[in-house]
């Protein structure tokens, strides 16, 4: 592998990675413009309510836990699990350096993003030895973006994207996305590389590496492992159909044995996931997709992937037609992902969007370059002239010869034939189509990146200067009140972190992340029976319950503290609770925190009835 080219492409990719941090830098610069009564929380990444869940798991590592527990439920005694251990372990490591959960999160985000762009460059150089095409493969992987939606916002021209609600399709946000998603990209890429190397060399060490990585992949993000299993099956099925006469009985039996081992390996974590999600609180995670399905439309997804979808799928078709063994692993990667999308559009046990989360743009980028390079070979004038070999890491009979010089008329006495008019037109047309496709993909990526950064900066500016609403729900368009944030800090410093706090959704979402307490209500889908609990919480904070009913509600749910901020007060018509069993322990202009008076038996409730 050309080390110099790798370094150049890695540095080029690093520049694009840096661009994804411009909104964070801009937000930090705008902190000085924030309202004086607001506490600025920088870089609430992608979506605040999910970001806080990740912080809560990092905080569990800081607190010394050995497994992940759901702090968005009122079950502190529940058994911990070993999913999303990435965040808990990072908390343990960050705790050695006294880092905050937010700093730990963004360090992870940065480190894994750097590794990810290195993997992208490696993939491009693995399959394309030619510098030009390797560079294009990297650029396509970075800049893959939607067909444009051209509109006007505030009388200014604006370019939006299809499926903008699914932020992973945004090229700028995707390159430094959520840490466990980025690791999932890395894992599916490594598994594909290992599948390619195993198919090429037959060495068992690559298969052993596949087994180990596949096992752990399900604990990071199950979609990556599922897509690879589909890719493995498609790879060997297609290979068998291509070379039926060359497959011995031993090879077939060995493939079946390896497939059995992989499925056995996958069954262990899948069975574990099945067991822990069969009951609450974790059952709510699998129920969410069924009860709240994403508005997924296949046509919109294809438009959101952009022209790369069409060039990539044409490249996949070309691989199948030409029996290109070296690009078969990349082809089955995207085919397995597409099959997953289609299957789960029909069977709604999982959202089809889970199969977008396996870096589909990368195999599409590689296959697009393969297709475009093939188009350019059709421009070759076999009558002679200077020729350039498009070096690919492909089989010898699949190497391309592309002609790049401008033909000159045949000189007198030369044996070189002239091109026919039709051939010239064909060559020029194919060249035009090829370079137009390249230009379109790159141009759309640059434009979408520009408007993504511009939109994020505009949002961050508006968030910094906003003074209303008091509580931004929904969506998160202001920073929290200082009183509200200080209430979280008081809980962190003055309460047992196993204590359960009752609040409405906004405070309930922040408290596990910034205070470390359990909450009865705070996140969908982490909170079990979310809709039912929402009704219960609204009823409690409306102050409509009688004293005995209110106390029974709290005692039955082991609630120790009431966080009574602006969102809770608004529900109560800006009144304060007068229940005798609530003891004020923290008071500020916007926030009161009450401790629920302890009681060993419910018999005393009879005096209130």
UniProtKB/TrEMBL annotation:
Keywords annotated in UniProt: Membrane, Transmembrane, Transmembrane helix
Record's keyword annotation contains Ligase: no
Membrane spanning stretches: 6-26, 103-125, 132-150, 178-197, 204-220, 226-246, 258-281, 301-320, 327-347, 359-378, 428-451
Name under which the protein is recorded: Glycosyltransferase RgtA/B/C/D-like domain-containing protein
Source organism per UniProt: Candidatus Roizmanbacteria bacterium RIFCSPLOWO2_02_FULL_38_10
């Amino acid at each position: 592998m050309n080390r110099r080219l790798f370094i150049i492409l890695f540095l080029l990719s690093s520049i694009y990675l840096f661009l994804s941090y411009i909104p964070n830098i801009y937000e930090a610069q705008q902190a000085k413009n924030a309202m004086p009564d607001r506490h600025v929380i920088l870089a609430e990444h992608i979506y605040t309510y999910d970001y806080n869940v990740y912080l809560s798991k990092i905080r569990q590592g800081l607190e010394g836990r050995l497994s992940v527990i759901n702090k968005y439920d009122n079950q502190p005694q529940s058994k911990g699990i070993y999913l999303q251990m990435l965040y808990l372990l990072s908390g343990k490591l960050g705790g050695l350096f006294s880092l905050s959960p937010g700093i730990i999160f963004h360090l992870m985000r940065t480190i894994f993003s750097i590794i990810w762009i290195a993997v992208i460059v490696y993939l491009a150089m693995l399959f394309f030895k030619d510098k030009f095409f390797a560079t294009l493969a990297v650029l396509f992987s970075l800049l893959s973006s939607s067909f444009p939606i051209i509109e006007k916002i505030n009388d200014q021209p604006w370019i939006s994207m299809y499926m903008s609600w699914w932020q992973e399709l945004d090229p700028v946000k995707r390159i430094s996305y959520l840490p466990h998603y980025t690791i999932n990209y890395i894992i599916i890429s490594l598994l594909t590389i290992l599948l390619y190397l195993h198919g090429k060399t037959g060495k068992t060490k690559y298969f052993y590496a596949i087994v180990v990585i596949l096992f752990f992949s399900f604990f990071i993000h199950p979609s990556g492992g599922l897509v690879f299993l589909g890719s493995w099956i498609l790879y060997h099925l297609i290979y068998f159909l291509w070379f039926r006469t060359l497959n011995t009985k031993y090879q077939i039996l060995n493939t079946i044995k390896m497939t059995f081992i992989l499925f056995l390996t996958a069954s262990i974590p899948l069975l574990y996931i099945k067991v822990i999600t069969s009951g609450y609180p974790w059952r709510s995670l699998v129920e969410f997709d069924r009860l709240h399905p994403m508005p997924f439309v296949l046509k919109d997804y294809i438009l959101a992937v952009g022209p790369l979808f069409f060039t990539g799928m044409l490249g996949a078709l070309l691989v199948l037609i030409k029996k290109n063994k070296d690009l078969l692993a990349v082809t089955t990667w995207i085919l397995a992902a597409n099959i997953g999308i289609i299957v789960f559009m029909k069977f709604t046990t999982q959202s089809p969007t889970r199969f977008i989360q396996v870096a589909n743009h990368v195999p599409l980028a590689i296959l697009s370059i393969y297709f475009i390079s093939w188009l350019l070979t059709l421009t070759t004038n076999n009558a002679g002239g200077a020729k350039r070999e498009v070096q690919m890491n492909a089989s010898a009979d699949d190497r391309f010869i592309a002609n790049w010089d401008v033909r000159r008329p045949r000189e007198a006495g030369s044996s070189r034939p002239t091109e026919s008019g039709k051939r010239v037109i064909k060559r020029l047309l194919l060249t035009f189509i090829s370079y137009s496709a390249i230009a379109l993909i790159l141009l759309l990526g640059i434009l979408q990146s520009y408007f993504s950064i511009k939109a994020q900066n505009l949002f961050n500016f508006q968030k910094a200067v906003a003074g209303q609403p008091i509580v931004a729900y929904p969506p998160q368009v202001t920073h929290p009140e200082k009183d509200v944030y200080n209430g979280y800090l008081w809980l962190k410093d003055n309460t047992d972190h196993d204590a359960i706090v009752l609040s409405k959704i906004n405070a309930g979402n922040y408290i596990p992340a910034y205070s470390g307490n359990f909450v009865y209500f705070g996140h969908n889908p982490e909170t079990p029976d979310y809709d039912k609990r929402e009704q219960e919480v609204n009823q409690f904070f409306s102050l409509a319950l009688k004293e005995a009913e209110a106390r029974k509600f709290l005692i039955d749910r082991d609630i120790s503290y009431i966080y009574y901020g602006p969102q809770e007060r608004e529900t109560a018509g800006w009144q304060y609770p007068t229940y005798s069993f609530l003891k004020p322990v923290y008071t500020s202009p916007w926030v009161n925190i009450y401790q629920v008076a302890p009681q060993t038996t419910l018999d005393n409730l009879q005096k209130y009835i």
